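W.,

You were right to be curious about this one. When I first looked at the sequence I had no strong expectations either way, so I just let the prediction run and decided to look at it fresh. Below is the sequence, 160 residues in total, followed by the output.
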Amino acid sequence: MPALILPLIEAAAHWPARGGLLGLDLGTKTIGVAASDPDRKLATGVETIARKAFTADAARLLALAAERTACGFVLGLPLNMDGSEGPRAQSTRAFARNLAKLTELPIGLWDERLSTAAVERELIANDVSRAKRAKVIDEHAAIFILQGALDRLAALRRAE
């Protein structure tokens, strides 16, 4: 059965209480990957995958999920500033649909508006060179996306 693709909060209901998540920042040339600890408190960078063909990209993501015994994915959904979905969001949804055919791990979609811009500002503030920023931006954006999702889920648990 293909994986469920749901907004983050709905996807969380399909993940076990404990278990790591993989956060993904889909770029046109690379995929930034971050992982959480099993208690879902902290996101850390894993790697940046240079995109090739979908099958190769998906195989690497599924291998990372298996290595880290992840129980789900958090995929950054690049919405427009007005909340509408443009071509990049549609491309992300298509990627999620294709990935869902290869795994049963639920995929949560998380609004990633301005994540790359925020990370870029932070790297510039820390005086990271342009060349170095280009190498790490997508992985850092994946960390930013996953940490935001983890913080949101923690806030919901506290409110219960």
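Here's what jumped out at me. The beta strands are 5-7, 21-26, 30-36, 43-50, 72-77, 107-111. And, maybe more interesting for your project: The mean pLDDT is 90.

Coffee later to discuss?

I.
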